[in-house]
Design brief:
Layout lengths: L1 H21 L5 H24 L3 E2 L16 H17 L7 H25 L4 E2 L4 H24 L10
Antiparallel strand pairs: 1-2
Helix pairs in contact: 1-3, 2-3, 2-5, 3-5, 4-5
Length: about 160
């Protein structure tokens, strides 16, 4: 159980370090959009897969008495939303379509490999009826859908000089 606690603490620390290192100060406000929108998506999706019994998180950040549900708070509200920030901030918008797909595949692949390692060697995550390729495709789908939402959201924003009434 000590290794699982270290994994949880490491994931939170990694999330903070990634934001500190890769989110420029002038993009901090922009980073909240993918963070909050992805948190909403993963909360619902994570709750669904846990309640269906497909995946479980035996060791949690909070004790069972202090938890509302069995989904992973660390994954759904720290690590995955931070990944969405980085995905959207560095998305290769001006590149060709195959570069965009490769970008999404790499992001999803790294996340999937990390989860499979955790599932294999720790008690942080347990695949009950889940398969690694479901993680890969769902992460890619959610990141791309979330990025499209970010683009749509930013279209509705006016430059800061035009916001006075």
């Amino acid at each position: 159980m000590i290794i699982e606690r270290l994994v949880i603490a490491g994931a939170i620390l990694l999330s903070i370090l990634l934001i500190w290192k890769f989110v420029p100060r002038e993009k901090a406000r922009e980073a909240w959009v993918p963070f909050l929108s992805l948190s909403s998506l993963t909360w619902a999706a994570g709750l669904f897969v846990v309640e269906m019994g497909w995946i479980s998180y035996p060791v949690q950040l909070f004790s069972k008495e202090n938890q509302v549900n069995e989904s992973s708070f660390t994954f759904e509200f720290f690590l995955f939303p931070v990944l969405a920030i980085l995905f959207s901030l560095y998305y290769p918008s001006s590149k060709k379509i195959h570069t965009k797909w490769l970008y999404a595949i790499i992001f999803s692949g790294i996340f999937t490999i990390a989860e499979v390692i955790l599932e294999t060697y720790t008690n942080s995550v347990k695949y009950d009826e889940w398969k690694w390729y479901w993680t890969f495709f769902s992460v890619m789908l959610v990141l791309m859908a979330n990025h499209q939402y970010v683009i749509w959201f930013k279209k509705g924003l006016k430059p800061s000089g035009e916001n006075h009434a």
